[in-house]
Design a protein that fits this description.
Layout: H1 2-29, H2 42-49, H3 53-65, E1 69-72, E2 76-79, H4 82-97, H5 102-123, H6 126-144, H7 148-165, H8 169-177, H9 179-195, H10 198-216, H11 220-244
Helix pairs in contact: 1-3, 2-3, 4-8, 5-7, 5-8, 5-10, 5-11, 6-7, 6-10, 7-9, 9-10, 10-11
């Protein structure tokens, strides 16, 4: 009887570890624990998932063995960028060597970010709406101050915030997976257009304001259209510049 009880206990422990792993994996996928973030303490996680600290510890060790987490003695447990770099790193090299691929990135952005804007308008929490509004004001302030670098940075962060607000793990994973490429792409293209000044810079700001207003007002179709209009504008301007060069 004692042996049977021990076997049942072992099965129960494995089940709890598996369940805790799944919960942590979900948190990695949906952006709750982003790349580079420090995980909460074992005690906090144990309370959150209603398991023992030993169960949390074993779940973390298994995820660390898969390269998803990294334990730093004396500093805590951190999320690695493996989910991101697994997709992004080859593209980073290809885009650097083949600028023509940026047209494909624009096409990809039109589909992906149009969808993320649509779902962000449907699903964003109050805190995420507030974050999007704050980033939009940061973008507007940078434009007012004629700070091109700060404007490009705020642009990138705004697109990231919209992706997270979509609350779709697959969209977020794809966006995070090519995040390095998108960040470089947004910065290069956005900064290049802004440096031209005049109508281009003003129109970029107006497009972002229209996009943010649609998301914050929870109008999904308008948000998707606004995002796609923005990407189409960037594509058109880049094509014009290519023809002139």
């Amino acid at each position: 009887m004692k042996q049977i009880k021990q076997i049942k206990q072992t099965i129960g422990d494995r089940s709890r570890v598996q369940a805790t792993m799944r919960a942590l994996e979900t948190a990695l996928l949906d952006g709750t624990f982003a790349a580079g973030a420090r995980l909460p303490a074992e005690r906090t996680l144990a309370e959150r998932y209603a398991v023992s600290r030993n169960t949390v510890r074993e779940a973390i060790q298994r995820l660390a063995a898969r390269g998803l987490l990294l334990s730093r003695p004396g500093a805590g447990v951190y999320v690695t960028d493996r989910l991101r770099t697994g997709v992004a790193s080859p593209w980073g090299e290809l885009v650097a060597d083949h600028p023509a691929l940026r047209e494909d990135i624009l096409e990809f952005r039109r589909v992906l970010e149009g969808a993320t804007a649509y779902f962000a308008a449907m699903r964003a929490t109050k805190d995420e709406i507030k974050s999007i509004e704050t980033l939009m004001r940061t973008l507007e302030n940078a434009r007012r101050d004629d700070d091109v670098a700060a404007e490009a940075q705020a642009d990138t962060r705004l697109h990231e915030a919209i992706a997270k607000a979509s609350h779709n793990a697959m969209f977020l994973h794809l966006h995070a997976g090519v995040l390095g490429v998108l960040r470089e792409h947004i910065t290069i293209n956005g900064t290049g257009l802004r440096e031209q000044g005049g109508d281009s810079s003003a129109l970029l700001l107006l497009q972002h304001r229209t996009l943010c207003d649609a998301i914050c007002a929870r109008r999904p179709e308008e948000a998707r259209t606004a995002m796609q209009t923005h990407i189409d504008f960037v594509r058109a301007k880049l094509n014009e510049r290519t023809k002139l060069s």
